[in-house]
Design a protein that fits this description.
The complex is a heterodimer of chains A (276) and B (358).
Chain A lengths: L1 E12 L25 E12 L3 E6 L5 H8 L8 E8 L11 H10 L1 E4 L3 H4 L6 H11 L5 H14 L16 H13 L5 E5 L7 H18 L2 E6 L2 H7 L2 E6 L2 E7 H6 L4 H10 L1
Parallel strand pairs in A: 3-7, 3-8, 5-6, 6-7
Antiparallel strand pairs in A: 1-2, 1-4, 8-9
Chain B lengths: L32 H7 L15 H16 L5 E2 L13 H10 L5 E6 L6 H14 L2 E2 L8 E5 L12 E5 L13 H9 L4 H14 L10 E3 L3 E3 L18 E6 L4 E5 L5 E3 L27 E7 L6 E7 L2 H9 L24 H6 L5
Parallel strand pairs in B: 2-3, 2-4, 4-5, 5-8
Antiparallel strand pairs in B: 1-9, 6-7, 6-10, 8-9, 11-12
Helix pairs in contact in B: 2-3
Classes of the chains: A alpha/beta (276), B alpha/beta (358).
Amino acid sequence: MTLLEAENLQTRYGPGCSQCIASTGDGAGTNQCPHCDTVVACAEADLGVEAGEVLGIVGESGSGKSSLAELLALERDEDATTAGEVRYAGHDGNLLDVDYETRHALRTGEIALVHQHIRDGLNLEFTGGGNVAEKLLSAGNRSYEDVRDRVRTLFEATEIPLARMDDPASTYSGGMQRRVQIARALATDPDLIVLDEPTTGLDVSVQARVLDMFRRVQREEGVAAIVVSHDLSVVRLLADRTLVMRHGRIVESGLTDRVMEDPHHEYTQTLINSVI
Amino acid sequence: MTDHTTTDDAPSDDRSFDDSAPDGGMPVSTASVDAALESLDDDGLTGYNYAYLDEHTKREVRRSMLKAVAIPGHQVPYASRPMPLARGWGTGGIQASLSLLGPEDRFKVIDQGADESVNAANIRRLAETTAEVETTTDTTDADLIQSRHRIPEEVLTAGQRLVLQVPITDALRKVDPSDAANRRRHAHKNYGKMWVHLYENVVEYGEINIASRYPTMVAGRYLMDPSPIPRWDVPKLDDADHLTVLAAGREARIYAVPPHTAVEPLAFEDRDFTVERFPEQACHACGSTDTYLVEVSEESADEDGFETRYACNDSSFCRKRRENPELPKDHHLDREGVDWGPETPDGDASTAQRGGSE
């Protein structure tokens, strides 16, 4: 069953003109329109995510990965002009057009985003447990013990020391903060989690543990995920299918193994060769 | 030198003042400030409108109050004029009171439960001289009560109006200093952050431990800061017979709890809202155990030093209780057992404990 389907997604910064799309992208070798200087962060992006599936999005910095991820997680950038259509199982119409209330309900219940920057995703003045509890409380849970139990379970699942649960999140290490974000995203049993650069700023051993933890939890909960990363090995480890982006366009897509072993697009070949 | 500066040593020449200056008052042409003051033969109130504020201001304040009544718990902006005392000293409350008062009204002012405090006495006197109202210290006798930090112990009735002075209008400011973000939260009834605050309170103290300004839902819609009244007083707002107007002078906001509105302090299903507890304590003056008590430190009678005693915070009701220790909080009503905050004395337990100190 297709959980989420996106068609012709586009994010641009600038006035835009009739030639923007034609004069940017992989063929043009740039994401900035030479006629009106508009930055086309991503365009002509079509994709779908099945229930329980992990979709990876790779590409170099500025290729439009995060812009795409933000659209899919219904996190609108106020400065950007967006277009396209996101359809979600069980909801009528285009999710990009819904009102604040519906979007808030979707974001607390069904689609969770793990931000690239900790400060966007966590309130560092709250305790780690409080950050996770916020999701549950916003969703209308009014039993203290239930909330407390759920937070404890999530801390265990994401391997955060329970003894640190009631400490301010600002005192947590980077890896723990990342785990709290994931615990928070999982709190209300969402159907889809969007992870934007889940390993940024973590050292290699912590990266491995966070990824391991996420892979286990993702399989146990059966939650679908979109993993955005510049790091091929992250996507190779987590994703069932992979999209490769460059200059704001999806240049290649397929099963992760196929993309890694038999890259078709020239850029993907360079990308993989440069890593392995 | 500007036109209207008059100093002691400046000779009073025949400069002509611009008498047509709008609303700036009439400049006094005089040799010195002392001479000007001596030349006054009245209270200095000539030219002031009834109840100090001009009619336009009163109408604007009333209009904001009407809107506040129409949307219970919602903060309505108003102009908030400069008043003859500093903002933060009850200017919002005074503007609301003076806009409501008419010559037939009896006015009571309480500051932290006491009618005698300087601020309360001054506000009362302002209303006396400018609005020609009678004032009282008896809660049951008042038509309009302006209060800071307390709701009286005696049950307020349908004919009465309570004006509460408010220093901080938004309950959410505790969790987010951004008013713009908080307005958005109010608009969408998005109070998750406040709930996290309560959650962390329980984590830290085992119960919700907010001393005053307890976050309260009004009519199931808006989260309201009930002003710095103790938790003890918050339940009195629920389904009350009287109108409560909350006015902030510094922040220029008015909000209201109309009569018979549901007012619910936020609490978890399994962590109840609790009021202050005074175990084993009674007012040293009247012996009450069912009123909000405060600690007072007084010089002890027999030795040099101080002793801490408990006393009723509501001084006017304490006086009545000293004459009649059995007096219930709803003594002036036809019905009995009125639900008025915690421990309304309709049970025997509280009356049995009372009277120990006399």
